[in-house]
């Protein structure tokens, strides 16, 4: 046992000495492995960072533990056939149905409603086209986890009495009240003057659409201004995560009962929630990883080919050394292991340096893109593991060639 331990230790030091004696060659050999490992880890961190970024943006837009019931909605792309099928089958959710859900749902902490429309705003010579005018109930503030930087949100009493008040998004505030407070001032929506009572915190964009170009008004006022009969969106939220899925099931069953749908009949409405979007993002990022990671692995394979060539050169240069060791009693297995250890050591060192490079690269990319890059342990194990395997595989042929050298012939080639 001690003899075997001594052999491996000696083999390691001989391999390390050989690498250090040819520093430039070793560095050039390592470049492919370093770039390959760094590429795999950085790509993996980018995919994980993209997922985290999108989910954070969804949470900012929709809030947590939040679901929505409406005529047509989906977290994934529908085929034309499926869209047409739903378009013919589904019916708008009415105000009466919203009130029924609000009064009967027990597991949802909040049940609110929202209607959407668009309008151009103009105040004097300042004009802002295509502003989203959102009619909301007072509890949409809690449902979507909204944060205000000025004033307050719409109250229940203001919804009940159809008060002409509203809360504006950051872009609207910057457009019309860049150098002053908008609280107490008015903006007209289709000729109706609305007093501003609050300003929402800047939320940024989501899939290229600004979330700050919004104007929230009571849902009752919204119905009067736009005179729409297209139904409402019903929004629900639970405070506790454990109640979220049961609350969705309860809401869906309650609306199905209200519409007198039999158990075998498909729902005539759609329910979407934040968790479904997270699952969709998992599928998207997994699909991206399945395509991109194997491509980056090609760099590691190219690095392995370089290692193999260098090891073949090393075998040629050390023919006399191999012959001498075999003449002194070294077995084929020991010669084989000697060169395999050297090849694996090269790739392991390259893998470690690649990880260090990847950490710096992810920090830089994350800073430039303004998003958190997460280095996942799975990609670290994958990249270092693959680089180590490549080191062994790349060293097999050169090591086998060295092990089969005839000691007499090897000694005569000095």
What does this protein look like?
The structure is a single chain. With 414 residues, the chain is an alpha+beta fold. It has two domains: 2-57 and 279-412, no CATH class; 66-273, no CATH class. The protein has 14 helices and twelve strands. It has helices at residues 2-21, 23-62, 80-89, 95-104, 140-143, 156-160, 170-176, 219-226, 244-258, 274-317, 319-327, 332-369, 377-403, 407-412, and strands at 66-70, 110-123, 126-136, 148-151, 165-168, 186-189, 192-200, 205-206, 209-210, 214-218, 233-237, 270-273. The strands form two sheets. Strands 1, 2, 3, 4, 5, 6, 7, 10, 11 and 12 form a ten-stranded mixed beta sheet that branches. Strands 8-9 form a two-stranded antiparallel ribbon. Strand 8 and strand 9 (209-210) form a beta hairpin. Helix 1 (2-21) crosses helix 12 (332-369), helix 2 runs antiparallel to helix 13 and helix 10 packs parallel to helix 13 (377-403). The longest helix has 44 residues, at 274-317. The protein starts with a helix and ends with a helix.
Number of domains: 2
Low-pLDDT stretches: none
Round the Cα radius of gyration to an integer and report it. Answer: 33 Å
Kindly, what is the distance between the CA atoms of the first and last residues, rounded to a whole number of angstroms? 34 Å
Strand tally is 12
Give the SSE string: HHEHHEEHEHEHEEEEEHEHEHHHHH
Shape: elongated
Largest sheet properties? 10 strands, mixed
As a percent range, the share of strand residues is 15-25%
Specify the structural class: alpha+beta
Count of alpha and pi helical runs: 14
- In helices, the fraction of residues equals 55-70%
Global mean pLDDT = 77
């Amino acid at each position: 046992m001690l003899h075997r331990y001594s052999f491996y230790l000696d083999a390691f030091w001989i391999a390390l000495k050989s690498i250090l004696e040819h520093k430039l060659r070793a560095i050039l050999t390592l470049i492919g492995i370093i770039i390959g490992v760094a590429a795999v880890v950085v790509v993996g961190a980018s995919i994980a960072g993209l997922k985290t970024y999108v989910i954070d943006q969804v949470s900012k837009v929709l809030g947590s533990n939040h679901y929505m019931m409406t005529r047509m909605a989906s977290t994934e792309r529908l085929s034309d056939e499926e869209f047409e099928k739903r378009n013919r089958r589904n019916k708008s959710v009415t105000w009466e149905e919203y009130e029924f859900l609000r009064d009967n749902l027990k597991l949802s902490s909040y049940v609110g409603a929202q209607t959407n429309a668009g309008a151009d705003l103009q105040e004097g010579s300042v004009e802002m086209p295509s502003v989203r005018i959102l009619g909301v109930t007072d509890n949409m503030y809690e449902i979507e986890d909204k944060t205000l930087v000025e004033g307050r949100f719409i109250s229940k009493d203001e919804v009940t009495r159809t008060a002409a008040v509203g809360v504006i998004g950051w872009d609207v505030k910057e457009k019309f009240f860049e150098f002053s407070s908008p609280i107490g001032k008015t903006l007209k929506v289709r000729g109706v003057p609305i007093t501003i009572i609050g300003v929402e915190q800047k939320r940024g964009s989501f899939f290229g659409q600004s979330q700050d170009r919004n104007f929230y008004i009571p849902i009752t006022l919204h119905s009067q201004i736009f005179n729409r009969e297209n139904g409402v969106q019903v929004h629900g939220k639970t405070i506790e995560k454990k109640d979220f899925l049961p609350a969705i099931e309860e809401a869906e069953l309650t609306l199905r009962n209200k519409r007198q749908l039999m158990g075998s009949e498909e729902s005539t409405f759609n329910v979407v929630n934040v968790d479904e979007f997270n699952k969709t993002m998992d599928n998207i990022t997994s699909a991206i990883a399945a395509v991109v990671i194997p491509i980056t692995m090609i760099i590691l394979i190219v690095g392995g080919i370089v290692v193999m060539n260098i090891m073949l050169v090393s075998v040629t240069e050390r023919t006399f050394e191999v012959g001498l060791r075999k003449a002194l009693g070294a077995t084929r297995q020991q010669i084989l292991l000697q060169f395999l250890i050297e090849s694996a050591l090269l790739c392991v060192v390259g893998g470690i340096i690649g990880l260090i490079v990847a950490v710096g690269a992810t920090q830089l990319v994350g800073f430039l893109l303004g998003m958190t890059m997460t280095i996942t342990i799975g990609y670290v194990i994958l990249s270092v593991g693959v680089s180590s395997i490549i080191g062994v595989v790349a060293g097999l042929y050169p090591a086998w060639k060295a092990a089969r050298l005839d000691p007499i012939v090897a000694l005569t080639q000095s």
